[in-house]
Design goal:
Elements (H helix, E strand, L loop, with lengths): L11 H14 L3 H26 L5 H8 L3 H11 L7 H13 L2
Helix pairs in contact: 2-3, 3-4
């Protein structure tokens, strides 16, 4: 992967927290910033994917893909977040009927 330079201005308090992180994790500052940025963007993608799913903007599988997660992991995150994403009563009723027939 090609790397590019990034220059940012941050408040002094944030710099202090970054220095604490660098010291605690025993990392080079640029590695620490990449690690934090990567983690933050991953969390953002997961949050947005759940939002999009809840709003009906993405299907379940498309939202999982957007989040960068497999379907089972995404399903668990949805369950933990208590997100209701199927809002059509007819679809739910049909799913229940199909499940009961399978018994």
């Amino acid at each position: 992967m090609k790397e590019t330079s990034l220059s940012v201005r941050i408040p002094g308090e944030l710099e202090q927290e970054l220095e604490e992180f660098v010291d605690e994790e025993d990392l080079d500052k640029s590695v620490a910033v990449r690690k934090l940025l990567s983690k933050s963007l991953k969390e953002w993608r997961e949050q947005k994917s759940m939002e999009f799913l809840s709003q009906g903007k993405l299907s379940f599988s498309a939202a999982a893909k957007f989040a960068g997660l497999d379907l089972w992991t995404f399903a668990e995150k949805i369950r933990q977040a208590k997100i209701v994403w199927i809002k059509d009563k007819e679809i739910i009723q049909k799913d229940i009927e199909r499940a009961l027939k399978g018994k």
